[in-house]
Amino acid sequence: MSGFGMSKEGVSSVRPPLLTGDNYSLWKGKMEAYICQIHDRAWMAVEDGYAPPMMIPTDGGEEVLKPKAQWSPQEFIDSMWNNKAIHAIRCVVSENQYKLIQITRIAKEAWDILEVAHEGTEVVKDSKLQVLQTRFETIRMEEHEHFNDFQVRLMDIVNQSHQLGDPYSDRRIKQKIMRSLPERFEPKVTALEENDTYKEMKPSEVIRRLLAYESRKATTSPPKKKKDITLKTSKMEEEEDDSYEDIALIAKGFKKFLNLQKSGYGSKGNDFKKKKTTIKNVKPYHEMSSREKIQCYECGGFRHISKDCANLEDEREEVATSSDSDEEVVAKFLALGLDLEEDMPTAG
């Protein structure tokens, strides 16, 4: 009987998984346990094999199968356990896997056929073991990984190696666990290694204690602030805004400086003096008419007021032509800085 039309698990209450081709390592271990719970004699038929009763014809010649009518009670019992084992195997394989063992009636032959099909010959096994050994040596628990998830990954490698005939000792598994944990487990690792009973501990006991430690840490550690990233981002943005504002203020000041230079309020160096208006043929004040006594507060001249002053008109024109946005001023200011830097004489 094959597993055709069945669910992906067998018919027993133990329900071993259905062998589909890519789950052989898991299937092999569970199938062994399944056949053993049927009876130890059934598993012996898989391990040691079974040979149907044979007989030599009365007229001589080669051995032939012994008719069941002539079987002894023990031969019936041996055949029964072989039949139970081969039946169990056939019930938990997919249609494609069943085709590999369809013609055999011996449980050991079926088991060996599936083993070679999925594990390969000794050369293939050695190659797989080398890959597993590399995985075992390089596996590490990630910083934010739960210990249970790491344990599953590690024990999967250990179990596959065991299935291929290369089991790891308890001591090696313990060492691997203790050397693969992140820094947050350091206090517990130290405490375990200093424990007088550590050498006698099984890997399962070490795993149990580490799971308990992680669970306690999870309940006692303060919750992480969800706003940490948001606050950091906001702070960075504020710093960028402040930097831009500083540049803008400097640029505005520089812009005013240029305007003052153009309007005559600045000269060479840092000498900011208001330009003087030269007035030729100015009469003494007591000889001036009333109109002539009108004085401009912009340039200090006479005969006009400040709003009609030519100097102020020049300033207005310069301001009108200097209406760049803050962004343009900053860009021009930075460009000017680069130009001045290039024009500076180099040392030597």
TrEMBL record:
GO terms for molecular function: nucleic acid binding; zinc ion binding. This is CCHC-type domain-containing protein. Keywords: Metal-binding, Zinc, Zinc-finger. Residues 296-309 form the CCHC-type domain. It comes from the Eukaryota. InterPro entries: Znf_CCHC (IPR001878).
